[in-house]
Amino acid sequence: MRLFPMFFLAAWAACPQTPETPLQSLPYSPSLDPASMDLTVNACQDLYHYACGGWLKSNPIPPDQSSWSVYAKAAQDNERFLWGILQDTAKPGTSRSAVEREIGDFFAACMDEGAAAKAGLTPLARELSAIGALRSAADLPEFLARQHLAMDFGMLFSFSSNQDFADSSRQIAFAGAGGLGLPDRDYYTKTDAKSEEIRKRYVAHVARMLELAGDPLPRAGAQARAIMGIETALAKASLTRVEQRDPYKLFHKMDRAGLQALTPALDWNRYLDAAGLGGLNEYNVTEPAFFREVQNLLVSTPIGDWKAYLRWHLVHARAAYLSPPFVDANFEFFGKYLRGTPQMQPRWKRCVRYVDQNLGEALGQVFVERTFTQDMKARTLTMTQEIEKAMENEIKQLPWMGDATKQQALVKLHAVVNKIGYPDKWRDYSSIRIDRGDFAGNIYRARVFEGRRQLAKIGKPVDRGEWGMTPPTVNAYYDPQMNDINFPAGVLQPPLFDPRMDDAPNYGNTGGTIGHELTHGFDDEGRQFDAHGNLHDWWTAADAKEFQARADCVANQYAQYTVVDDIKINSRLTMGEDVADLGGELLAYLAWKNVTRGTELKSIGGLTPEQRFFVGFAQWACGDERAASKRVHAITDPHSPPEYRINGVAANMPEFRAAFGCKVGQPMVRENPCRVW
Ligand SMILES: [Zn+2]
Question: What is the DSSP letter of 239?
Answer without folding.
Answer: P
